[in-house]
Amino acid sequence: MxxxxxxxxxxxxxxxxxxxxxxxxxRRVRAVFQELFSRMEIMPPETRREARERARTxxxxxxxxxxxxxxxxxxxxxxxxxxxxxxVIRVILFVVVFLLLAAAGWLGVRILTVKSGLEAAKAQLSSxxxxxxxxxxLKAMGRDAAKAVNATGDPVWxxxxxxxxxxxxxxxxxLAAQTLDAFANDVALPVVQMQSDGKGKLLAxxxxxxxxxxxxxxxxxxxxxxxxxxxxxxxxxxxxxxQVVDVLDVAAPVFxxxxxxxxxxxxxxxxxxxxxxAESLPLGGSSASETLITADKGDLKITAQADSGDFAEDKQxxxxxxxxxxxxxxxxxxxxxxxxxxxRPDWPSAAQQLIAFWQRDIKDQTINGVVSIDPIALERMxxxxxxxxxxxxxxxxxxxxxxxxxxxxxxxxxxxxxxxxKSDAFFQAVAATMFEKVASADFDMPKMINALRDSVAKGDxxxxxxxxxxxxxxxxxxxSGELPTDNDETTTLGLYYRDVSASKIDYYLKTxxxxxxxxxxxxxxxxxxxxxxxxxxxxxxxxxxxxxKSRSHGSTFFSKQVFxxxxxGMKVASVTVDGRxxxxxxxxxxxxxxxxxxFQMTLRPGESATVTxxxxxxxxxxxxxxxxxxxxxxxxxxxxDSCAAK
Length: 646
Fold this sequence. Notes:
Largest sheet: 6 strands, mixed
Low-confidence stretches: 1-13, 15-21, 39-46, 60-77, 94-110
Number of strands: 18
Distance between the termini: 89 Å
Strand content: 15-25%
Helix content: 40-55%
Shape: globular
Mean pLDDT: 82
Structural class: alpha+beta
């Protein structure tokens, strides 16, 4: 259409100016229209403003003053776009600001949603730990976690994560929500539902879930650990991320090794050792009963059982190293009897001895790990499983220790072949019945978790794995049964008891200990005192079954030993004894990288003895801890530490 108008104008000019003779007025009109065509057709759009400015400032040819027609030419040009351009810019700025404010508001709502979801999920977890209904709590936790994850999944949130510093905090919130969602909705809730559906074989059915989430949890662990170390997280977010990272530090490695340990890639065999605290040894009690368990694709089965009578006595092991420092402290029989393997307070070396004894005397086969449990832990676990019945005997969370470590010796004389057979059959049946309860997931989950947590903390449950990756996880804590080799996290003192009467008298032994640390002039002083009390009258001791009495001295007296392991870097300053027939012995020995103060005593019924060891060394600011033998009558322990950093 524009071209048609120009054609008409050209024709009009041609008509006006046609002919050989043109007036001055005709020439002026022609010049005006030619200028108009020049501006409208030839000039590129980006030079029009410049041309207009030049038209206003350049004088008319021949020095003449501007004519009245020049404004007419200007009026025919396109309108100036300056005001329009400014208006467009203002509109654009308004839209941008509006969108930013809307995005910020939307993001704020999302952040509040995530915060609310995470806090609600954390509250549900707390309720489970306090004994709340796990199914109800997990369902609510799953909903809250899913809500938090959904709130972090929109494009606005993803874009905001690109903002320096602030974006790291948003990313941390998203990853924390995803972690909680993975644990609650992808693992915990399905497993708990499996546990309650009555179909059994919980681990076998849960194994695919664990395998599926292993890579996800490992990735979340890596990302959150990096963010936690970035220095960009603000106070509340950093605190929350640290809590999640602490959980993932344990959970991620466990998820990575659990499929292998449960036999996902080939059957695994584990030795379950039942310790007898009635005959105390540093790690618990004589390891008289053992059960071999096989895990194949999560399916657990008992494949063999043995007791102390199945192992050769006084035959030194040749396939494992027995530390010279251990034989110096515990005698030449250490390393020659299966039930004495837990004499040294070091579960890894005890576990390897137990495997060697099994392979030598029972069956030469690959064993992938060893787990220890005692009747004290079993009694706690019965709170979760409920009572179990073996024959006509009912074991509960109130009487299991008494039945297993006292009453059973009254029922059967294990010095006779018939009595020993009945006793062995009973203990094996107890182990099998309890194992079936646990393997079939027939228990209250929160109560079982609490029972195992308490048992690990007190040394009643220990584990060792032949898999280096799994053992690395186990080694970081009391579950390992291995004293720390330094004072970096704790200053740990070991206080251990040993019966050397070949008796089961420790059902009646009571112990107490006080450990105090003071600091002066850069030197730490630790004073460790323990008292052993044979809390039984002579009359009652005389009436005990002969299997409970001392093998050599009957009920006349019972021989005990105490071993106090100093923290690394400290030395023995002095030892004192209080009581009859009490003396230091085998002094000057170093074992497990620590100096040891050993004592020996004989206790008659009703007698007590107290021993004290004082250690000195370079100060350490880590908290003082005491590891001690799990006794039937729990040791009354007090720790007074004035040196730990506040």
